[in-house]
């Protein structure tokens, strides 16, 4: 049996009430709010959050592939998957690849990884998709998009949803695009894309997959369709013989937005919240053609359901203004922060800074960070063993700094005692006013600290747990 | 080293936004004032120490900045840099050179031109990822918040330190901020790094100070009554206190250790100290310092301030000069400037802020926070 073992999603805590977009431009965007990647987040950091959530207490050393899918990687050349894998402390022998170029990349990566597991070349693979797409201010797309990530662990054991069939269609069809070096996604005529493009390709791929699975559309319990918009999803479902009202997994437009590459995985996670063992679930995504996969929920599912999306979307932090959204997404420039770790220092300290290993003294047991030669507690030399720091802890003391050159002011900084030992001093992020206090439980999150000389530096921050 | 070294001359520039004065000019002002105070010629200086924390466009790189400012060539000059203890440590090194018998007369200068660096004054140095985002107020605020949480101290007590030091500094014509402030003003000032508001923080300052030390047995040959070095201590602790899981954030072990060394050398106890210039970079720091220096028990520093015992007329006057809070804090200059205040107080030259019959004065710097501290004890006889 080959299929999904675990599925996790991540949504940034910042929210933009779409009414603020309406107010800024005198337009009528959809109701609700969208998720907004904070100024210290990008697809790499959101992917790390999703992967760590998906891994849970699993041993990262057992993972042998990590495929990363996004249309908004920070790099034109340089892999993102390797950084995500390193921050998640996956082993050096992990197979990594970036899937890009289309919002269909999420399902493309899933299909490739499942094929690898089915072929026996991979035992435990992770697919992570993340997007933070930017639409031009005042464009129609601006009101639709949202930021987020999803990660899936795949394997042959502990499967909660077994792969039944896959089908793909490829068609050159320019509907959503962004030229290299450009910032904003552009969209073509919506009716054209819904009639041909998305409308035709997804229906065709659904038909092919159902035929392979020998299923009539009515047998599918839930249809998770990543669509340019909710109406297009309902139309294509009907066109392929489904009952949208009964079978279509509701979109996240009201609470998050159209997510891009992670969207089909997020909707699949939503379907798994309520699916029963034996239920068939179809997931589809479009982009210059379509991918569709059909899964069957297993007996293991009820005991291993994903955490509900509603939970993950709770505790949003509303941005106070449209301008703050523009600042968060880099449309309005902030104060430049010019500190930079050279790639040499970054490489030298990968285990300490990115994999987040400290030391534990073999003589006195003191857990300490950063890594040194001589023990802070007992002065023993070269008796320090590598110790992976926990990513949860409690604030020992803090300050809220208005002076610091920071991406956002005021910036809380906290000294944190970690579970299992060790103390770290980190910037806090994603906190509401008054949330950072002595005793506040926190968790660590991988973030983009600053960028200079074209080289972004990533490090860990803490957020209220 | 007790009673082997004497301070025979001191000098200090006006502290403040010295946009009009260059780094070397400030050194010149302070050093020549010290020469005149001692009644010596520059040629009598056999060695010199320069305390500067941040070398910059204005100078401060290596000892040549002092050599060129004073045209003091062909003799040993050493630059000292030890965080905020730079000034007192430069002085301590000068005293050690004399005590070692190498030189008879040594010049110590502390100088800093922070304002040459633009708005924020202090650039961020150190690792670009670890502890990234820290600021001087933010680092001390970590300690202040833990301390205030533990001992139940409020911002009102901190504000009383600012009120007192501004009151003292207003009497001091060379102080940077010469205005008195009310507790209400302090409490309502914009927050810099919680719990510190603007008036809880020392300013970013330019300035220089100088001291001339000589062999005790030669000291009576010079113009002014000599002030004797009684004791000196320096202690370094971790430069990464925020990563130390054993640190309680209630005080600084570097100050405690440096004070133990200085008191032992001087053969005194904290009760013998008549006035102290302590490192009030932030209001809370003064409260913690007076505990670490042994003037009261840990947790009782706020009480001393509340009861007025640290005021000019109190039984342990703290920062009669106005302190870093009011006098200003050009980092490398501050420690030497504290020495000049102690010398003036012990000579009876402190004017409106004179502490009567002062026999023993103490100067203290702490930087890091808590990573390095220096304590110097001076006596009238």
Task: Describe this structure as you would to a colleague.
The complex is a heterodimer of chains A (465) and B (381). Chain A has 465 residues and is an alpha+beta fold. Helix content of chain A is 25%, strand content 30%. Chain A has a nine-stranded mixed β-sheet, with helices on both faces. Chain A has a five-stranded antiparallel β-sheet with strand order 20-19-18-21-22. In chain A, α2 crosses α3 (81-87) and α6 (197-213) crosses α7. Chain B is an alpha/beta fold. Chain B contains eleven helices and eleven strands. Chain B has helices spanning 23-38, 64-70, 86-99, 136-151, 155-170, 183-188, 253-266, 283-292, 301-306, 323-327, 331-347; strands at residues 5-12, 47-51, 77-80, 105-113, 191-193, 196-197, 206-215, 227-236, 275-277, 360-367, 372-379. In chain B, α3 (86-99) crosses α11 and α5 (155-170) packs across α8. The model of chain B has no long low-confidence stretch (mean pLDDT 96). The chains are: A alpha+beta (465), B alpha/beta (381). The interface between A and B is large, with 40 and 33 residues.
How far apart, in Å, are the first and last alpha carbons of chain B?
A: 15 Å
Over the alpha carbons, how many angstroms does the gyration radius of chain B reach? 19 Å
Task: Outline the low-pLDDT stretches of chain B.
Answer: none
Task: Summarize the main sheet of chain B.
Answer: 9 strands, mixed
Name the beta content range of chain B: 15-25%
Structural class of chain A: alpha+beta
Write down the secondary-structure element order of chain B. EHEHEHEHHHEEEEHEHHHHEE
Shape of chain B: globular
Average pLDDT confidence of chain B is 96
Number of helices, where a helix is a run of at least 4 consecutive DSSP H or I residues of chain B? 11
N-to-C terminal Cα separation of chain A, in Å?
Answer: 36 Å
Low-pLDDT sequence parts of chain A: none
Q: What is the helix content of chain B? A: 25-40%
Query: With helices defined by DSSP (H or I, 4 residues minimum), what is the helix count of chain A?
Result: 13
Total strands of chain B: the figure is 11
